[in-house]
Amino acid sequence: MSDLRTRLEGSPYQGYSYSYPHKTAYRPLAEPVPLAELWARERKDALYLYLHVPFCGMRCGFCNLFTKARPEGSLVDRYLDALGRQARVVREAIGEASFARMAVGGGTPTFLEAEALDCVLGLAERVMGAGPGRIPISVEASPGTLTAEKLRVLADRGTTRLSLGVESFDEAEARAVNRPQATAEVERALDLIREARIPTLNLDLIYGLPGQSVASWLASLHAALRHRPEELYLYPLYVRPQTTLGRAGRDWDDLRLACYREGRSLLLGEGYAQVSMRMFRSAQAPPEAGPPYRCQEDGMIGLGCGARSYAAGLHYADAYAVRQRGVGAILEGYASRPGAAFGLADHGHRLSEDDRRRRFVIQSLLSGEGLSFSDYSRQFGSELGDDLPEIAELEEAGLATRGPDALRLNERGIERSDVIGPWLYSRKVRTLMEDYEWH
User: Fold this and answer.
1) 61 and which of 8, 44, 65, 244 could share a cystine (Cβ 3.0–4.6 Å)?
2) What positions does the domain Radical SAM core occupy (predicted)?
């Protein structure tokens, strides 16, 4: 148990394992793969559609997303034209397919003007066949970009969930991470969202911000709770390469863990259920409708320059960058790409059988549902203990509880999710991530 024990002695925030393998493990493929051939071999009855809008009004100090702050000239229009070309080529390549979920992320999708936002959502419905009333649709937003007109577009296009990146209700804390944001502007945006009657409101908040205390963190949570959001995501502050904070070399581990514990206690007391380390869902939240979808098993189609696509044996995307010069160069290449080029995957990661097993385990274990032994055996035709014997170390370390058919993280294990995820990465993926050349 040496590696797990060593990791547990370090930072609780070693890596957010929302996807495995991470994009820093992607590399140019030796030979481009035609999408029509790739998807002909895949299950396509329950796909996730993700559209990426890589633009923001500002670059936050903690942000390592693929996004361009304050794009100039005709870049946005040229990007949307390319998005339309890509959608048409990809839709033809994948053939008959059904979508179970859809999300529009970024960047900040609501950075777009209302007409452009309608264009993006219209592409999803008109070209991809993912429309209102049939599947859950989630859209990301920031307070300063929201207007009543944009929210009408979202509501008319069937948005069922709006995720608002507030990060903090304290103006000084927001400024400390290069996010000049007036609390009055946040409150105005929240009032507009409630008037638009989008069924589920999610608020993103960050703990561990420079200058933050446990008391000021709880004040932000109480401010959020006044709006009774159906969901809350509580994110620890990550200090990532090439971000403003990363270059400053700052860290706030002790505060983050204290904030997490106090925030968790508050939300549980307010009737929220903890779905994962980050996600809390209100008992009053509407039940999730739409066809069944399991991220461990079902694929994803990504459209846009920063979007990933997941087939069983290949994850692929455009190249990744954080620094604005690198992002700009990649975006220019995307915007000028001819339609036929969108029919090929040329950058990504080929998943070995070991990768596929580890992905299933990580994504199951770090969610509230836990890791089902029977689901694992059904998916891979083998026993979990034979394939990944190290999984038993989680019980030995007091991080998980074994039930009749599932392994679930306990309270201590959930708060160490950002240790357990990276611990389960394969040696090959770890090496690729460590060797990644940041741009």
Assistant:
1) 244
2) 41-273
